[in-house]
Design a protein that fits this description.
Layout lengths: L1 H23 L6 H4 L10 E7 L8 H15 L4 E7 L6 H9 L5 E5 L20 H7 L1 H10 L3 E6 L6 E5 L13 E3 L5 H6 L3 E3 L6 H6 L5 E4 L15 E7 L4 E6 H5 L3 H35 L3 E3 L3 H22 L4 H7 L5
Helix pairs in contact: 3-10
């Protein structure tokens, strides 16, 4: 067991040391050396940002530059964002802790990779609201308080209007025909697949193409953006056109890094991220519409469920995902249901 654990620990420590070494190379960089001096003659505060996905992935490739540009422009040069990289610079499983411990300052992440440390964050998937609506109905404030208890400032969402879909090589006529199908899964829809009597399979992203090609799996779950560029649609025939769940992508910032900014710049950062969310939602709406059209042009056939199966499927999704929260955070689940207007 240790021979598998030790290399990962060594890799994580090495990444952290390299990041810290990079910080130390510039005495004006980083919140620790610039606390209380934002915008002063000592120079701008440099904030280090890490992404759980590769920077050229369809999800962050335009969102990180857009947010970075807004921050640097609207804070008038008081802050610069240094994009450290994606998972090649810091392992995905270590990024949440790296932000809350101050190894890096900002993380573009998803709760799939830190939900075991903060189970209530899985509720992000269950929100039927837009980011703007979440800021109005109290859910954003609730989650902000929960993140603050983890030494984090919740700035907002960076991915929305990108629900999940099931992609398959079996042309089904009814929902029940998914029974027994082997699908590549992850924690987001694992329980849903089990409830449908499917067979969830653990497959690394780099092995999905081969697994589909060799018929080791019959399909997979994923949003619209990504599978075509990954080549997966070359070996996938059908898309079940039944979107489900919300995204769970968050912009999280280390508390000390946030507090290193002036009060005025803290408020600007929160406000510009709110505006960013509106642009982000419209961006992904358009990208998903274009992608669905492109998929059909490339030969992927869309399957529509009957109204009865559609309702049944959505009820299963909600029941299973809320069931996870009921077990994980029994002291919070009633408040979350109230905020997210869930009344089964």
């Amino acid at each position: 067991m240790f021979k598998f654990v030790r290399p990962r620990i060594f890799l994580s420590l090495l990444c952290c040391l390299l990041l810290l070494a990079g910080c130390g190379s510039n005495s004006a960089s980083g919140p620790a050396s610039s606390a209380g001096s934002a915008g002063s003659s000592s120079g701008p505060v440099e904030l280090k940002l890490v992404s759980f996905l590769a920077l050229d992935h369809p999800f962050p490739k335009d969102m990180i530059p857009l947010w970075k540009e807004k921050v640097e422009k609207e804070l008038n040069g008081a802050v610069t964002i240094r994009v450290v990289g994606g998972p090649e610079s810091l392992p995905v499983g270590d990024q949440f802790d790296a932000v809350r411990n101050g190894v890096v300052d900002i993380g573009f992440n998803v709760s799939s990779y830190y939900g075991h440390l903060m189970p209530e964050s899985h509720s992000l998937n269950l929100s039927p609201f837009t980011p703007a609506e979440e800021r109005e109905n109290g859910y954003f404030d609730y989650m902000s308080d929960r993140f603050k208890q983890n030494n984090l400032v919740y700035l907002g969402r960076w991915l929305s209007e990108s629900p999940y879909y099931f992609w398959t090589n079996k042309k089904i006529q009814a929902l029940d025909e998914l029974k027994g199908s082997k699908f590549r899964s992850n924690s987001t829809y694992h329980e849903v697949m089990l409830a449908l009597e499917m067979v969830p399979m653990e497959v690394n992203p780099g092995d999905v193409y081969t697994s589909l090609e060799r018929k080791m799996v019959d399909g997979f779950g994923f949003p619209l953006l990504g599978p075509r560029l990954n080549g997966w649609t070359e070996v996938t025939k059908y898309l079940i056109d039944e979107p489900f769940l919300n995204q769970n992508a968050t912009i999280l910032m280390n508390v000390k890094a946030f507090e290193s900014l002036s009060s005025e710049n803290q408020q600007k950062l929160l406000a510009l991220t709110k505006d960013f969310e509106t642009e982000m939602v419209e961006y992904f709406k358009k990208e998903n519409e274009k992608e669905k059209q492109t998929l059909q042009e490339k030969g992927v056939e869309l399957i529509k469920l009957s109204p009865e199966d559609s309702q049944k499927f959505q009820e299963i999704v909600k029941r299973e995902k809320w069931g996870v929260l009921e077990k994980a955070v029994p002291d919070q689940v009633n408040e979350l249901k109230k905020l997210l207007k869930y009344n089964p």
